[in-house]
Design a protein that fits this description.
Layout (H helix, E strand, L loop, with lengths): L1 H13 L3 H10 L13 H8 L1 H19 L7 H4 L1 H20 L12 H11 L1 H18 L2 H19 L5 H16 L2 H9 L9 H11 L1
């Protein structure tokens, strides 16, 4: 019974619609009516600017981390690593589902990437750090947040299954599901990338200006 309560709590934490609440409270708009229509950090960055996009990403990441760490409330999971990992996966997934389908915002949320990252940080910080490195490298090379997110999600699966060779079956299944979910939630982005219409995040505008000057 305690586990059920905590999973519901994790879902409610994940359901906190950070981007929606911030856009309404400080700008009088619903972020989902602008840009890509997504209630996530990337769309917030594009529509409201770097400051608010960073805040949304940090809070969404924290949602995943806190929700996944709720296991500490039940003493049994502190002493049993296998059961703890399995329960943490359940808690984290509940938070991710909450982010994608938030009860506080009409079940229209974001794609769950930042919340997934927070979940990964709680369960296995080394793997999460490796995925962050992949994300930042791809972002530096392409400036596509969507592509960076997808490759980081796929990298998570590769790290778990092959590089770190985790033996826990549920964790391995979870890693595959993460990769699939990240790709499936970015289908529209994939289409735009193939068509050459996907928006780029101008975080490297000074580098791009230098390249343009060199070409001219």
């Amino acid at each position: 019974m305690n586990e059920v309560i905590l999973i519901v709590t994790a879902y409610l934490i994940g359901s906190i619609p950070t981007a929606v609440w911030i856009s309404k409270a400080f700008f009088g708009i619903d972020i989902r009516d602008y840009g890509s229509g997504n209630a996530g950090a990337t769309n917030t960055y594009r529509v409201l600017g770097k400051k608010w996009g960073t805040i949304v990403m940090a809070v969404d990441l924290l949602k995943g981390f806190i929700a996944t760490s709720l296991y500490v409330i039940i003493p049994h999971y502190l002493a049993n690593e296998l059961h703890r990992t399995n329960f943490m996966i359940g808690l984290g997934l509940a938070a991710v589902v909450g982010h994608i389908f938030p009860i506080w915002a009409g079940f229209r949320g974001g794609k769950g990437v930042a919340t997934l990252l927070g979940m990964a940080l709680a369960i296995q910080p080394i793997v999460a750090a490796c995925c962050i490195a992949v994300f930042l490298l791809v972002l530096y090379l392409t400036r596509f947040v969507s592509l960076s997110s997808m490759l980081a999600g796929i990298a998570f699966m590769v790290f778990i299954l092959f590089i770190f060779n985790e033996q826990e079956t549920l964790y391995r299944i979870f890693a595959v599901l993460v990769a699939l979910m990240v790709v499936l939630t970015h289908q529209k982005n994939i289409g735009r990338i193939l068509k050459g219409t996907e928006s780029k995040v101008p975080i490297l505008k000074y580098r791009d200006r230098r390249r343009q000057r060199r070409r001219s």
